[in-house]
Amino acid sequence: MADEQLGNLWREARELSFGTSGQVERLESPPSPLRFLRDFVAANKPCIISRTATLHWPAFARSLWSDDAYLRRVLSGHSVSVHLTPHGRADSLVPLPPAPDGGARGLCFASACVRSMEFPEALSLIYDTGLPSSPVVAYAQQQNDCFRAEYSALAMDVEPHIPWATEALGCLPEAVNLWIGNGRSETSFHKDHYENLYVVVTGEKHFLLLPPTEAHRLYVRSYPAAQYVTTPSSSSSEEMGELKLEVMEPETLVPWCSVDPYPPSPEDVAKQRSRFPLYFEGAKPFECTVKAGEILYLPSMWFHHVSQTPDCNGRTIAINYWYDMVFDIKYAYFNFLVSISSHTSESAGMLCNSSGDVSNISEDSEPESKNHIVNA
Ligand SMILES: O=C(O)CCC(=O)C(=O)O
Hints:
Low-confidence stretches: 347-362, 370-376
Strand content: 25-35%
Bound molecules: 2-oxoglutaric acid
Oligomer: single chain
CATH superfamily of the domain at 3-78 and 142-219 and 261-354: Jelly Rolls
Mean pLDDT: 90
């Protein structure tokens, strides 16, 4: 498709629907179900609701989740899932392990090593691995309804659902997930097939958001799946040593967004900018910081990248409520859009390929979190 036409779509969608300021609309108080449905869900438009929405939750009213002694006591004896990576980026693109002949290799999609451990041990590990010297970063999370499955002892501290969202969407959440990370934890660009009500409880979360109309700007490509592995017996950061990356056999390809918005070095910045001009030279993504007590409505199909600033204790806690999305005409339009190739995106794909960094340049459309309970 002519990039001019794609550019028109991106501009028009922002002008007509999402706004051109790059800011996410903020609401001073929780919306009525009608307003939430009409102005945000139907419009597929994000918003942030102020902390007036959550002041009454015991987690906030009594500052329960800022108190490690409380969390350790209530969750003692409970096993939780912890994602371990060498750098804090779970589900992200990394170089493939070196070839036996030492030849150049491309990138792969690396999933974290997931370990189950008792909560007090997991919390200590999150603290220990927040230090830059730690060869491992621990992020307690599991996108399979982990709050209700693993943290049920904390159920009374929060609401089981967001009442105005439940009424607007006509259903209860399909999954409720808890996220406990340190300043090194990061989630790479992807999208989900859920209406997401994301509540930050301690610390801050920083989101970069791109609407589904701008899917081509993230250069979704297929990458071989790989997973970090470690010895099963150890759990403290010293005992754990280095994580090893194993490529899945037989080869399985995972479609994932190629863009890293925060490349680690100046050389990486230059590489990313030349490979992915649609992202780096186009309109800025919507950018927002969600603070303790605030709720981000992250509409279904929006691409998001998430990083965090810990609280004074050194951790960030968030809980999100995933409601089923409706697979309606917007979904059909989206699928049509991503079935179309962009010229710029294609030539950038060839560039990646010739430098040996991308294994497969075919455009693909489904970069969703890999451990969801439902993959639509
Ligand atoms: O908080 C994070 O690190 C990621 C959150 C996310 O991807 C989601 O809620 O869908």
